[in-house]
Amino acid sequence: MYPMVEPYDQGMLNVGDGQQIHWEVSGNPTGKPAVVFHGGPGSGLNPKWREDFDPQHWKLVLWSQRGAGKSTPPASDPSTDMSLNTTQHLIDDAEKLREHLGIDKWLLIGGSWGSTLILAYAIQHPHRVSEIIIPAVTASRPEEHEWITRGLGLFFPDYFEAFLNGLPEEDRDGNLALAYNKLLNSPDPETREKAAWDWCKWDMSTVTGGDNDFTGTRWDDPETRYRLARTVTHYWGNDAFIEPGYIFDNLHNLKGIPGVLIHGRNDFGGPLQTAWEVAKRWPDAELVILNDAGHVIMEGNSMDRAIAAAVEKFR
Fold first, then answer.
1. Phi, psi (degrees; rounded to nearest 5) at 9
2. Catalytic residue among 71, 112, 140, 205
3. Is 112 a catalytic residue?
4. Of 27, 98, 141, 197, which one has the fewest beta carbons inside 10 Å?
């Protein structure tokens, strides 16, 4: 772990569609470039990533995807048009940011939703990628969304019952993310607030493996809760706006790009199977399976240590 340095440069990039994305650069201005694709979708950049990169060696780019963090317009504003927020939009934004910063190639790192976006970006722009590090591998396939919104009820029947009860009875048999997204876009503020609470109670329990106490977490803030719920249901309800087999059918584009996939065997929200299948189709990637880890990266845990080792490997 390295010191938490402050960014030496930051700004807002106009990427079109009335969208401005927020970015920060820290470390060595002439160092090896790396970029973090954050999760969520909708969580925004996390400065803690700076502690994984030696600031004397790396030029580290953090950015917030459309609607997240300080990027504008915010997804937390019910009037923000979410049709302008899709995977392809985010891929194009990342490319515009790379060009804006004058970077030829960069290492990509990020987990959970960030891993889906990394893989989709790298498939389209392989010549702009030096290496890839992915903790908590997901590919945003329909079966993955079905698992995390319904299948996990096998492990959390109490939470799942409360999750279903947050929806009108007629919407409980279909696409649960879309059903919640409808409530989150209701003209009634109380309906939106309750839907964000109910969705995040379920979302947090699946991420943590059973804990859904908001106290002291990012879900504690009502505005953050709404932004996350609205963005996640927008993406999951529409299968991330990518064809179901797109990522797996195009992993051959990553040939020659070294990668490290890091996955916890106890990851409820993102079962190991996805990481296993990605590794099978991407021979240049090493799969690290952690028997004592789940989905969450915590300071000093095995996931955190594996990430630090992977960053050092590509130093």
1. -150, 145
2. 112
3. yes
4. 197
